[in-house]
# Entry
Amino acid sequence: MSFALASLVASISYVRLAVRDLDAAARFASDAFGLQHAAEQDGEIAFRSDNRFRTVSLVSAERDGGSVGVEMWDEAALEQAAGRLAEAGFLIQRASQKECERRYVQDAWLAKDGSGNSIDLIVRPQQSGRRYFPPRDAGIMQFHNIGLLTTDHARDLTFWKILGARVSDWVGDIAYLQIDEFHHRVALFPAARSGLLYSAFEVEGFDQIMQNSYFMQNRQIKILQGPGRESASEQIFLHVQGPDGIIFTYVHGMAAGAEKSRRTRQFPFTHESLCSWGSVSTDIPEFRVPEDRA
Amino acid sequence: MIRLKDISYVRLGSSDLETAETFATSCLGLEIAERGRKTLYLRSDDRTHTLCYSEGDPHQQTVGFEVDDEDDLQKAAATLEALGHPVHAGSAEEAEQRKVKAFIGFSDPTGNHIELVVRPERRGRRYFATRDAGITGFSHIGLNSTDPVRDERFWTQVCNARVSDRIGDIPLMRVNAIHHTIALVRAPSAGIQHINHQVESNDDVLRSYYFLHERRVPIVFGPGRHPTSGARFLYFKGPDDMIFEYSVGVDEIEDEATHRPRQFGFEPPSFCMWGSRPAGMALPDHT
# Structure
């Protein structure tokens, strides 16, 4: 591994989102957001955003609670991570062949973090020979990062540290977790609830962020926050609200480059730290800062 | 041919200098260069001033362009008079008010007040903004035209302006490498349609969008991006309904000899490639 971090994680590979109304969520994912429908199996609808076979699956909430797929470097890293998590007392079990097939991966361990979020540690997720062909020109390049809600902050941080992640920056107690050259691939948001907060997809440029912003406005699809720019990661973002509490996010321009010598910075938990341009979200509880309550 | 080198300043009449000053400093971010009893001079770059308000009718609007020297100024006066445009030779006192060495005034075919100036003053101390809007300088104007085809001929044949692109019949014209310094706007009468200041970055455009929105300044167009010049923009309304624009990333025409104006259709995407629509501001060709 060329990267200086001792990360066992290769990538955030997919999100499986539990929804009550599969059709409505599927329409949002493809028609509005611009993901490509890839496959359907066992009532799960798979979508593509890049060369991977799928990066988003919609699953019926009655059957499954959804999960986040974390690709490990190789089988050795997978076994090592699984062993260490079990040792630290996290719930973890080997996936059955059926569970692996549902996840389009060769092998997996299914874990729960301290908040009860389902994290799939996987190896060899399927790629696709055909390139990603989106249903509309949203400019999506790849599935890029996620925001996770945490009810047990210390424990969840331990979970990710075992996988080799490091905190690149803090905003209040929001932790941006670095696993590769990018500023973060996971952001942990202290919350009164668990689950996935958002799934972020990188678009080609600032133009696409803005075009998507007007696209959503014209279709009266709610923008929860943005266009904005995170102060710590420099990432430009647009948080879009889908059905069933789904938040899909367009992002561009996250700071990158392995600054292994750079120390973790602390930003205050203020609107300015969450968005240096001045956008504000009042709808996402975890983005409400003390100044809102004042 | 009248050889314009650059745009120099805008002079606006104002019935309420106090409101003009508040807006210019707390919203727009310009620096006060000089405050007289009936005048307010504002800076946006190295020049001593680029915007001047003076007590009077807000319909009194003048734009100044720089020419090379007094010789060029005299030739310009002769050219204009030969074409039947009455020329006002600026007095020494008037030149002092404009902080230029010499100037002449005339009206373009639509009736816009235009001044040609020689040696506009610069100031040794750099521009220091009153708010962090990221302004790098006064750059261009939108100029009303009752007949854009006729006025394009005036600016390109009597003067040295060149058409960089057209949207419908509306020319975007340059007098130097910057994509446009004069954007004609079809309108029923003379006037300045908007005043543009360049800012440093995309961040500044978006920051100002949220900043001005929060202060209830009417945003009339944007944030958006012009496919013609490539500039990211924000238009908003100031005192006396004057529209100001921030923009960044305007193209430069690198090869003067080979550049050919592109024709864009008269439709909303020609004005904004992101999908923003004007609100409270007419698109340039609405007649």
The two ends of chain B are 31 Å apart (CA to CA). The first strand of chain B starts at residue 4 and ends at 14. The helical segments of chain B are 17-28, 70-82, 92-98, 148-158, 202-214, 268-271.
